[in-house]
Amino acid sequence: FSAHLKKGGNLPVPKWTVYAKTATHKELNPYDKDWYYVRTAAVARQVYLKQGIGAGALRRRYGGAKRRGVKPSHHAGSSGSIARTALQGLEKLGLVEKTASGGRQITQKGQQELDRI
């Protein structure tokens, strides 16, 4: 689905994605140039599977263990800005819509796109 999003050319990709880390517990930014398309496709899949998911739940989903030296590791969330902009981009494409409870749900067009690919 990420290749489909890239080939379509309609997904707005923020300029800061070149410099951004995906989470606070990461040391470097991603090596893959198309990481934003991959993450947006993964967000679309999560919304497809769990209707009503929001940016906070996506932060927990894509977070991981923050290494703290000799102290025990703790969970650290991923970047909220990436989750928000991915959801907003999917909304602009008409694949996702807001729910009354505040999360996002897949639209009929989005379900057709994900089922087709």
How many helices? The count is: 5
In helices, the fraction of residues equals 40-55%
Q: Beta-sheet strand percentage?
A: 5-15%
Q: Write down how many β-strands occur, each being a DSSP E stretch of 2 or more residues.
A: 4
Secondary structural class: alpha+beta
Order of helices and strands: HHHEEHEEH
Low-pLDDT ranges: none
Euclidean distance between termini CA atoms: 6 Å
Which strand order do you get reading across the main beta sheet?
1-2
Biggest β-sheet, characterized? 2 strands, antiparallel
Shape by Cα distribution = globular
Radius of gyration, rounded? Answer: 15 Å
Mean pLDDT: 92
Structure report:
The chain has 5 helices and 4 strands. The protein is globular. With 117 residues, the chain is of the alpha+beta class. It has helices at residues 2-8, 35-49, 55-61, 80-92, 108-116, and strands at 64-68, 71-76, 96-98, 104-106.
What would you say about this model in short?
With 117 residues, the protein is of the alpha+beta class. It is 44% helix and 15% strand.
Sequence-ordered SSE layout with sheet pairings:
Layout (H helix, E strand, L loop, with lengths): L1 H7 L26 H15 L5 H7 L2 E5 L2 E6 L3 H13 L3 E3 L5 E3 L1 H9 L1
Antiparallel strand pairs: 1-2, 3-4
Which short descriptors sum up this protein?
117 residues; alpha+beta; two-stranded antiparallel ribbon; 4 strands; 44% helix; 15% strand; globular
